[in-house]
Design goal:
The structure holds two protein chains of two kinds. Chain A is an all-alpha fold. Chain A has a domain of 195 residues. The termini of chain A are far apart. The longest helix of chain A is centred in the first third of the chain and has 32 residues. A two-stranded antiparallel sheet of chain A has the order 1-2. In chain A, a hairpin with a 2-residue loop joins strand 1 and strand 2. In chain A, 53% of the residues are buried. Chain B folds into two domains: 251 residues, Rossmann fold, CATH 3.40.50.2300; 128 residues, Rossmann fold. Helices cover 40% and strands 21% of the residues of chain B. Chain B has 14 helices and 16 strands. In chain B, the strands form three sheets. In chain B, strands 7, 8, 9, 10, 11, 12, 13, 14 and 15 form a nine-stranded mixed sheet that branches. A five-stranded parallel sheet of chain B has the order 2-1-3-4-6, with helices on both faces. In chain B, a hairpin with a 4-residue loop joins strand 13 and strand 14. In chain B, helix 3 runs parallel beside helix 4. Chain B is globular. Chain B starts with 7 loop residues before the first helix and ends with a strand. Chains A and B meet through helix 1, strand 2, helix 10 and helix 11 of A and helix 2, strand 8, helix 7, helix 8 and helix 9 of B.
């Protein structure tokens, strides 16, 4: 195979993996550390993206707007946790599932009423460079770098900060952590806020490459759920490994056949691996691995 | 036109269930005497992914019914619009079609956006003998006496588009299409017209409606290096194609023409730099300069605010459908389906619409209308290039004659 083809295929794979990491990281943290399945995760991604689009429309520079995305979404997450999620802890998991599903519908329809169904978007920045017969957008490399940086930042946050220590303690044994004087209610709020902020970061980073519309979360969310389930209990490294594997399978099959078969291959791969490793990729890691 | 996982089997079962429960009171649709308002129904997707098409269509449908009522209604009675939200689910189209026909006893049902939803609603409304208007451009070829289609068909709007591309943009074409009946059948048409105008389709890719991943498709396009990409992509999930195409700077060498771009206001979602220069061909553009359009746009702005989204061709087809039906009822002097169909088939029914003169072609139950070529400008709108006046539904005329053969009930395709 010619070199330019391989290099171009390589960037396709990296881009797909990075996108999967971005959309699933926040979901994984909220699920793994709190046991909450956030069905409104896709709508949180949408909030992050809309924050960027609206800020840019107000004349804010793109990069500054991209910082605002996770901040705004994180705050929305904190408010959601205080008003909605908090009331459902300790009850059956369907409670949070239904509540967040409803929240997702409300956010989606609210965005439609507020912004219309075809709001003005922003173009992909930075242009492109050529590689033999192919042309590669610089911004796709930004996405790859950003995904790597976010994984690194989240690991640092959990392993090197006081919040991280307390959050890990709460995750491992909530009752014991509370007995030792950890304010687990506050930790829950911060963790949900963090997960939401990561969704917002995904939305902000993807805003210039996807169509920013109220329903934009729907196609993203299904592969995010598969990635999280396949990743298993290690909320960061498991999810990253799972995204790497699924993105690789999907893109290689897509490049060799069609996008439809690529998606089918992703689902088959996930099914087979879960059959062999029911706990997910990180199911046999040390229990405390993040 | 447009998408959605048909879930055909499920829809068919539901349709059967609905029909079994409703066929007992069939045939009464327009028969109700009295002086009260006439119930009429609209079934469009106001929520879910298809709402990007359904919401503007519903806006125009309401405006059209208000307009008909403002001029006195029909037969001295006002219309009462029953509007259903089919929620981007084909089975809901069938369910509400049954309800509109039997519970509401609607004199006419208009709606369905995707070809999948139309095909699901058609049999349901045939069984109750409720007149059905489908107001969306589509791949063409549907021949059904119970139905009137006011949108463009492939032979009306794809022919001039491919002709233009072959003559002005280059002979080497690549087709990227949404993977369902609209995209697949349109691709057959594109291949046919390309051959007719001396161009060659060097590759085709079909993309599922819920996929937004265009990496591989753009690789294929770059490898084949065509002069023209014909995009039959549908829905907001497919918008990233245009984004990535622009981000890779491919627009410098390859031009895009599209029989679907803009129907979901893609030119508003994209930035002008990404969308400028894409060529489309529809019956209606907001920029059309005629008195009916001026009046229509004033009414629309008064109802939905001056800063409304671009009014699409798909939306204006609703205006045309409702006014054609009202005019047919006035001419027939009755709401009775067969009397209205007689006017439809007379070949004399026409209206002066914001999109020009719309004349019903009797034998095919389609319409003859103007088609305009236009290119996306840098103001999130279109610059008009050329208008082809009074384009008949060419292909349908060769296969469908419902006057001679009223029981013909088929969807014809070119291949």
């Amino acid at each position: 195979m010619p070199l330019d083809y391989l290099a171009n295929a390589g960037t396709n794979i990296l881009f797909d993996v990075a996108t999967l990491v971005l959309v699933s990281l926040g979901l994984s943290i909220v699920f793994g550390m709190m046991g909450v399945i956030n069905m409104a995760h896709g709508e949180f991604i949408m909030i992050g993206a809309f924050t960027v689009v609206l800020a840019v429309r107000q004349g804010v520079p793109l990069w500054a707007a991209m910082v605002a995305g996770p901040v705004v979404t994180g705050l929305v997450g904190v408010v959601t946790e205080r008003l909605l999620i908090r009331r459902l802890y300790g009850k059956r998991i369907e409670g949070t599932l239904l509540a967040t599903f409803g929240l997702g519908l409300i956010l989606q329809q609210g965005a439609t009423l507020l912004l219309g169904s075809s709001p003005e978007g922003i173009a992909t920045p930075l242009g492109s460079f050529s590689l033999g017969r192919y042309s590669i957008g610089w911004y796709s490399l930004v996405i790859v770098a950003a995904a790597l940086a976010l994984v690194g930042l989240v690991l640092l946050l959990f392993l090197r900060t006081r919040y991280g220590l307390l959050a890990r303690a709460t995750m491992q044994n909530r009752a014991m952590a509370a007995n030792l004087g950890i304010d687990t209610s506050r930790i829950n709020m911060l963790t949900f806020g963090l997960g939401s902020a990561l969704a917002g970061a995904a939305g902000a980073l993807l805003a210039p490459v996807v169509a920013v519309v109220p329903t934009m979360g729907i196609p993203l969310i299904s592969s995010a759920f598969i990635t999280v389930v396949l990743g298993g209990p290690a909320v960061v490294t498991g999810t990253a490994a799972s995204a790497g594997l699924l993105g690789l399978v999907r893109q290689v099959v897509t490049l060799l056949s069609t996008p439809l078969l690529g998606t089918a291959a992703l689902l088959v791969a996930a099914t087979v691996i879960l059959r062999l490793l029911p706990g997910g990729i990180s199911g046999r890691y040390r229990r405390t691995t993040l | 036109m447009a998408p959605l996982s048909a879930s055909g089997r499920r829809a068919a079962i539901l349709a059967t269930a609905v029909l079994l429960t409703t066929s007992a009171c069939a045939g009464n649709a327009a028969g109700k005497p009295g002086d009260g308002p006439i119930p009429v129904a609209s079934i469009l997707d106001l929520t879910g992914p298809l709402s990007i098409y359904g919401t503007p269509k519903s806006n125009v449908a309401k405006l059209a019914v208000d307009d008909i009522n403002a001029s006195g209604g029909v037969l001295g009675r006002k219309l009462k619009l029953v509007a259903y939200d089919s929620q981007s689910q084909t089975d809901k189209n069938v369910e509400y079609a049954g309800q509109a026909a039997t519970k509401d006893e609607a004199a006419v049902v208009m709606g369905g956006i995707t070809s999948a939803s139309r095909e699901a609603m058609r049999p349901a409304l045939q069984r109750t003998r409720t007149l059905y208007f489908y107001n969306s451009l589509y791949e063409g070829g549907v021949c059904d006496r119970n139905q009137v289609i006011t949108g463009e068909t492939a032979s009306q709007f794809l022919d001039p588009l491919i002709n233009y591309a072959a003559a002005n943009l280059g002979k080497k074409m690549y087709v990227v299409a949404a993977d369902y009946n609209y995209g697949r059948i349109s691709t057959q048409w594109i291949q046919k017209y390309a051959a007719q105008y001396g161009a060659k389709v060097v590759g085709t890719d079909f993309v599922s409606l819920d996929s937004g991943d265009f990496g591989a498709v753009l690789n294929n396009i770059q490898r084949e290096a065509p002069d023209v990409v014909v995009s039959v992509l549908v829905g907001s999930n497919h918008v990233p194609f245009y984004r990535e195409f622009a981000a890779k700077g491919l627009g410098a060498k390859i031009k895009i023409v599209s029989p679907s771009f803009g129907l979901g206001n893609e030119q508003e979602i994209l930035s002008p730099a990404e969308a400028k220069g894409i060529v489309t061909s529809y019956n209606y553009y907001q920029e059309l300069d005629n008195p009916a359009n001026k009046a229509f746009r004033e009414k629309y702005a008064a109802a939905y605010g001056a800063k409304h989204a671009y009014i699409t061709d798909l939306a204006v087809s609703e205006w045309n459908g409702w006014h054609l039906w009202a005019e047919a009822v006035r001419k027939a002097g009755s709401l009775d389906r067969d009397k209205v169909l007689k006017v439809i088939e007379s070949g004399t029914l026409s209206i002066d619409s914001p999109s020009g003169t719309i004349k019903v072609d009797g034998p095919t139950h389609h319409v003859t209308e103007d088609i305009t070529l236009a290119t996306v400008n840098d103001k999130r709108g279109f610059d008009l290039l050329k208008t082809f006046p009074a384009q008949p539904p060419q292909y349908e005329k060769t296969v469908c004659d419902l006057v001679r053969n009223p029981t013909l009930n088929r969807a014809f395709t070119p291949a």
